[in-house]
Amino acid sequence: AEKLLRQSEKLAVLGELSAGVVHEIKNPLTSIKGFLQLMQAGTIETKDYISILNTEIEHIEQIASDLLGFAKPSDEMKKQDLSVLLDSVVFLMNAQSKKHNVELNWAAPQDEYPVLGDESQIKQVFVNLIKNAIEASEEHGTVEIHLSNRDDQVVIQVQDYGCGIPEEMLNHIGDSFFTTKEKGTGLGLMITQKIIHNHHGKINIHSIVNEGTTFSVILPKYY
Ligand code: ADP
Ligand code: MG
């Protein structure tokens, strides 16, 4: 029953988003169509515009995969060891961090960090946070991932030394489609917040412009 409830909550979120999603997808489609017409008419040189078409298509693809990861029916809520989950997420993100020349600093701790949750949804949270941290870091930056037990909670921190978030923007972080990136979707943190909320957790942001940002995720410890 709880599984059904969580699924219907997610569908409700998707319903609220649908107008925005259509809008976000229509823009690149309009541009793709426009360029194709110009190419067909011979007005523009095809090879000069291939990369624009590609960028627009990738944007649609990114929106679809962000939403799909969220909408997918979740597994059972099970006991998860966050140290094990983070290990595999960091491994997964290594390719992307190399591409950006960013070092992921993570030492798998010996302790156990048990929480009750859905494996793929929790992984999604850390993929989103680490991806943002990498994207915010200058070339040759470092992203630190830190795990700790605090009384009856588990705390995960993702810290970067990147661009930071201006104070007036903090209120909009996590709003659907809020992005400052040319290729952003503005869906990552919205989805992250929903997932954390469904796991009865909290997320805090500490950020200083040009110094960096720390996202802290606090989840109830599972006994
Ligand atoms: P996207 O990454 O597609 O832009 P997100 O929801 O993941 O969407 O993030 C929304 C916005 O929050 C980003 O565009 C960026 O402006 C800001 N942001 C998120 N994480 C960080 C970070 N670690 N450092 C600086 N800004 C960040
Ligand atoms: Mg993001």
From TrEMBL:
The chain holds residues 245 to 467 of 467 of the full protein. Signal peptide: none annotated. Residues 20-223 form the Histidine kinase domain. This is histidine kinase. It comes from Aquibacillus koreensis. Coiled coil: none annotated.
